[in-house]
Amino acid sequence: MRLPHVSMTDGVDVAVVGIPFDTGTSFRPGARFGPMAIRNVSSLLRPFHPHHGLDVFEQLSVIDYGDAGVIPGNIDRTYAAVGDTFGRLAGAGVTCVGLGGDHSVTLAELRALADRFGPLALLQFDAHGDTWDEYFGERYSHGTTFRRAAEEGLLRTTSSIQIGMRGSLYHADDLRAGEELGFQVITCDELRALGPQAFAQAVSERVGEWPTFVSFDVDFVDPAYAPGTGTPEVGGVTSGEAVTFLRALGGVNIVGSDCVEVAAAYDSPGEPTALLAANVVWEMLALIAVYRRLTNAPSVQA
Prior knowledge:
The chain contains nine helices and ten strands. It is α/β, with parallel strands linked by helices.
C-alpha cells in the first residue's frame, strides 16, 4: 500500500508481515509467492474507507515490516522463526497482519499472540475446516492448523466461528469436525441464508469483546473470482460478498489477522486473487481502526 518498509516499532500501531512459506500445502504449491503478489497489487489501494468513513492511515500508524524468516521444507523451524517475529512485534504492542503463505503458518502466529493475550477467539473465513488430525500422516500441515491450535489451548473455541465451509469431503463427519472441538461452524449455504446483518449479530453474540484473530483463506471465495489458490472449491461467495461479510465485523476486538493461500502462479492475468487479498488486508486494517475509534483507544502514534 506504499507503506514505509520499517524494522523499528516505535510509534507503530500495526505491522504487515509476509510469511512466504508453502511446505504445508497438500495440492498446488506456490503460496510462498503470495506476499510478493499481494504487495505488488496493493499499490492501487487508497487510504480512505468510504464504508467506515475513516482514513485508515490517519487513524493508525502502519508499516510494512517485510517478511518473517522461513525455512523451506522445515515446518518446525519455520514455526519458530515466524513465532519469534510475531512475538517480538506483539510484545512491543504492535498488532500483526500476516500475508501468507499457506494456512499452516497461522499456527505460528496464534502461538505468539496467545502467549501475549491468552486463548484467542477465532473468525476463520475458509472453504475448509483445517481440523484434520493428520494429513498424509503429518500432524502439521495446512489441513491440521486449527485442530493443533485448539489442542494447544491457543483458542477459546467457544468464542470462535469457522465460516464458509463447503465442497467434497473424505468422510461424512469432516464438515462438522470443528464442532467437536467447540467451534461454531457456518457453512457457505448457511452464511448466504444469514446475510451480513444476521452474520454480524451471530459474531457479536459468539465473540463479544474477546481478543480475536481473523484468518482469511482466499479459497473462501469462489475460484471464478479467486482462481490463484492451492485448494480451490466451487460454490463460494463472490469477492464483493466476501468484502461485505468482512465489513460486518465492525466492533470486533481484532488483535491479529492474516490472509493466506494466494498461489500467484495460478492467478488469472488480471491478478484478481492477489487483488482480493490486498483488499482483504485493507479491510482488516480498517476494522482495527474502527474498533479503536469505537472504544476511544489511543493509537501508538497519538
